Every structure is written in C-alpha cells, then in structure tokens.
C-alpha cells in the first residue's frame, strides 16, 4: 500500500468520529506496511515478551522456597483480581495479550525478512555483511526453535498433555509437576538447550529493540550491549537453574 496523499486522507475540523477512526486505522495500516513500522512493532511486542520472560523466570525461582510457595503462586495467578473479576479472568487477558504480541512479532519478523531479501542486490562482486547475515540467521532459526519450544511447553507443563504418565500431572501442583517433568533427563536437557537458544535470541534481540526505539547513542552503545547480554545470561541461568537442580537432586 502506498502512503501518498490520495491514500492518506487528512482529518478536518468537523469530521465525525467515524471518519476520524477510519483515518486513524488507515494511518496505522500505512505505518505497518513500512519497514520502520514493522521494526517498531517488533520492538514494542519484544518489550512485552521480554517483560513476561523475566516475570516468569522470577516466578519459577519460587520453587526454591518449596512446594507451598510455588503452588500458592500458581493459585494466586488465577485468583488475582477476584472477586471483582472472575477466577482466571486476568490470566486470560494476559494470555491473549501475549498471544497477540507473539503473532505480531513473528508476522513482522517474517515480512521484514522478505523485504530485506527482495531488496538485497544479487550477483558477483556484491560484498555481503557477514556479521549481519549471521545474526539475522541466528535470530530467525532461534525464533523457529523458540516457537517449537513454547508449543511443546504449553502442552507439557501447562496442560500436562505430553511428558507425563496418566494421572501424574496435577492442575495447580506446579512443584510436583516440575519435579516429575525434569526427572526425565532428556526433557530437562531439552529445556536447558531451549533456554540457551532463548539467551542468544535475547542477547541480540534486546540490543536491536533498544536501537529501534532510539535509545542508543555513540556513548552508551557498549553499555546497552552489555545490559542486553547481562539480561540474556540472567534469564538463562534463572530458567536453567530449575531443570539443573532437579537433575542434580537438589530439590526434593
Ligand atoms: C526451565 C524453563 C521453564 C520452566 C521450568 C517453566 C515452567 C512453567 C510452568 C510450571 C508453567 C505452568 C504454571 C501454572 O500452571 O501455574 C508454565 C507456563 C507457561 N510458560 Fe513456562 N517455564 C519455563 C520457560 C518458559 C519460557 C522460556 C517461556 C516463554 C518464552 C515460557 C512460557 C510459558 C507460558 C506462555 C506459560 C503458560 C502460562 C499460562 O497461560 O498459564 N516458559 N511454565
């Protein structure tokens, strides 16, 4: 879609609310169709997803305080907002927001890749930026692995539909479920490898996100790269500590 004057109508005083809404959605669509629009959508949804990942990692650490603590936390996630809201209602709002963010993040990533492939000059004598190509590939493949991990993870530790004997998975008994899940060592190793992939994705992703949002300057570039890497490593260590502790028999 083009963004020229004929396709981008102007709101005039006196225009009614419907006209203004149409113009606003038209502008939002025109923005989405630009490369920078998609990058900003990736960055903003990235902020939400990184926020969720950090919160989830911190929540998981409650396992080290024992079964009562983490199981109560799981109940709290469903009871929060009651009685004003129905049981689990806020959790559903969070799930829908996360799903929307994941869908937008992936759609923007796929479309940006297509745009950059279409714009890339081909032929002899074209010097490609090896580093950029490598990071882009790492992000793309990392993203694919993470989507596969999340789908497995939802069927596994949220629904208990895979990886458990019949009757072994118990709703709201997070401690017992996690213990049972990670005593199967290939599953624990798979989680640790997936967390390594997440770490690489966050290392580059957070830095890209900060650049897109215009936070980087010549002076703070090294600091922001350090902060991105530090967050990625802390997330890796925090998440991995759970399967590692079950495998090492540090949790009972
Ligand atoms: C070692 C790493 C991880 C462990 C041990 C773990 C553990 C869990 C557990 C026990 C639940 C169920 C909680 C409950 O029912 O109250 C859960 C849910 C979930 N986890 Fe993880 N998780 C890990 C990593 C991740 C990662 C990396 C992501 C995303 C990038 C993720 C996304 C989710 C989502 C979306 C849910 C569903 C929340 C819901 O809708 O109820 N998890 N996780």
Structure description:
By secondary structure, the protein is an all-alpha fold. The chain has eight helices and no strands. The N and C termini lie far apart (59 Å). It binds protoporphyrin IX containing FE. The site of protoporphyrin IX containing FE has 19 residues, from helix 2, helix 3, helix 5, helix 6 and helix 7.
Query: Which percent range describes the beta-strand content?
Result: under 5%
SSE run? HHHHHHHH
* N- to C-terminal distance: 59 Å
CATH topology: 3 helical TM bundles of succinate and fumarate reductases
User: Which ligands occur here?
Assistant: protoporphyrin IX containing FE
Architecture (CATH level 2) name: Up-down Bundle
> In terms of per-residue confidence, which ranges show pLDDT below 50 for 5 or more consecutive residues?
1-6
